């Protein structure tokens, strides 16, 4: 009996939601995490099934995911902020602090309403230690997300925002969206190559979301697999994270100094005169990744497309949309939607 107690003390249970979110954030498949952590594939699968493992193994997993064991084990929500915020309980902190391209730090949390049977996805932005001017500037950036969501509140491919507010007790700014049961496209891409039918649905969903944004005069600008959620119930792609969206025909809206490299972002995305063709570029790069099974080097898209069994019209559309020079890309999302809608992939 004493031996069993000793073994039990050496094992820990990792929170499955937090483990999945950490893998999601880094875009790691089970196989990739196994390699990075130096564990067996059975160990990773056991963790995802909620089974306990030795603490040393759990620590290896945390280090491979560039997080801490405390986060993966489900450390108290109050360790990073209030356990409740307005009418919501912070039931899980799903990620460590993430740095956005504009320097804002945020965490993603799983929230539950204190009175209603409602879940929510909360992003809390860290405004601590900022000057008044810095905080005001950051609030302007943060509010762009709920404003974009509000302008397209009934669109099936745009996240639905519930509320946004400043929490003076913790100096966090909260943006709360509806809870979408599913995972990011980044995690999906890390797991498998998409079939033609899956890729067609994905490309149409993303393009229709972009169409809705463009009709409202909004350029997504930094579209990538991390900012697209795939809903489990129907595999629908839903666009989110609009803090860096740009309003067409306005002046500079977000500081773009030292943006980190993003292989899905158009080269001109950080320019003041960026237009909707930047989103078309990102759309194509994501689509080629889904169809090809990996993301080709910039400029190698056509070579990758030649290896994919798709109609020539679809191949040409994706190739032109991924052109380095925006003058070579289609002028509107409507053009690419028409091509993808006409794509017959069988039953």
TrEMBL record:
Q: Taxonomic lineage per UniProt? A: Bacteria, Pseudomonadati, Planctomycetota, Planctomycetia, Pirellulales
Keywords per UniProt: ATP-binding, Kinase, Nucleotide-binding, Transferase
Q: Which GO terms describe its molecular function?
A: protein serine/threonine kinase activity
Q: What residues does the Protein kinase domain cover? A: 71-347
Q: What InterPro entries does the record tag this protein with? A: CDPK_Ser/Thr_kinases, Cro/C1-type_HTH, Kinase-like_dom_sf, Lambda_DNA-bd_dom_sf, Prot_kinase_dom
Q: Which SUPFAM superfamilies match?
A: lambda repressor-like DNA-binding domains, Protein kinase-like (PK-like)
Listed name of the protein: Serine/threonine-protein kinase C
What's the Enzyme Commission number for this chain?
2.7.11.1
Signal peptide as annotated in the record = none
- SMART domains the record matches: S_TKc (SM00220)
The protein's matches in PANTHER family, at most eight in alphabetical order, are given as: SERINE/THREONINE-PROTEIN KINASE
Organism per entry: Stieleria magnilauensis
Q: What class of enzyme is it?
A: transferase
Q: Name one Pfam family in it.
A: HTH_26
Domain HTH cro/C1-type: from-to ranges:
19-72
């Amino acid at each position: 009996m004493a031996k069993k107690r000793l073994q039990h003390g050496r094992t820990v249970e990792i929170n499955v939601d937090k483990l999945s979110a950490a893998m999601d954030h880094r875009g790691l498949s089970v196989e990739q995490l196994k390699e990075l952590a130096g564990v067996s594939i059975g160990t990773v699968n056991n963790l995802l099934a909620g089974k306990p493992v030795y603490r040393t193994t759990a620590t290896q997993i945390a280090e491979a995911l560039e997080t801490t064991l405390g986060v993966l084990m489900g450390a108290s929500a109050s360790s990073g902020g209030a356990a409740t915020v307005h009418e919501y309980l912070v039931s899980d902190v799903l990620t460590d602090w993430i740095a956005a391209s504009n320097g804002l730090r945020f965490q993603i949390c799983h929230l539950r309403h204190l009175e209603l049977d409602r879940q929510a996805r909360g992003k809390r932005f860290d405004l601590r230690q900022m000057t008044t001017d810095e905080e005001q500037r950051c609030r302007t950036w943060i509010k762009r997300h709920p404003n974009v969501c509000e302008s397209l509140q009934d669109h099936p491919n745009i996240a639905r925002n519930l509320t946004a507010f400043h929490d003076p007790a913790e100096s966090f700014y909260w943006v709360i969206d509806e809870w979408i049961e599913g995972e990011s496209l980044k995690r999906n891409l890390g797991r498998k190559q998409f079939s033609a039918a899956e890729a067609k649905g994905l490309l149409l969903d993303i393009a229709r979301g972009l169409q809705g944004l463009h009709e409202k005069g909004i350029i997504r600008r930094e579209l990538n697999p991390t900012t697209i959620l795939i809903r489990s119930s129907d595999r629908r792609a839903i666009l989110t994270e609009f803090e860096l969206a740009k309003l067409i025909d306005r002046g500079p809206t977000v500081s773009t100094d030292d943006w980190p490299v993003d292989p899905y972002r158009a080269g001109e995305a950080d320019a003041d005169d960026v237009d909707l063709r930047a989103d078309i570029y990102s759309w194509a790069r994501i689509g080629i990744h889904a169809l090809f099974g990996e993301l080709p080097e910039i400029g190698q898209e056509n070579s990758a497309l030649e290896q994919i069994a798709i109609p020539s019209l679809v191949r040409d559309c994706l190739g032109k949309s991924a052109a380095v020079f925006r003058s070579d890309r289609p002028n509107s999302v409507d053009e690419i939607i028409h091509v993808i809608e006409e794509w017959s992939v069988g039953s």
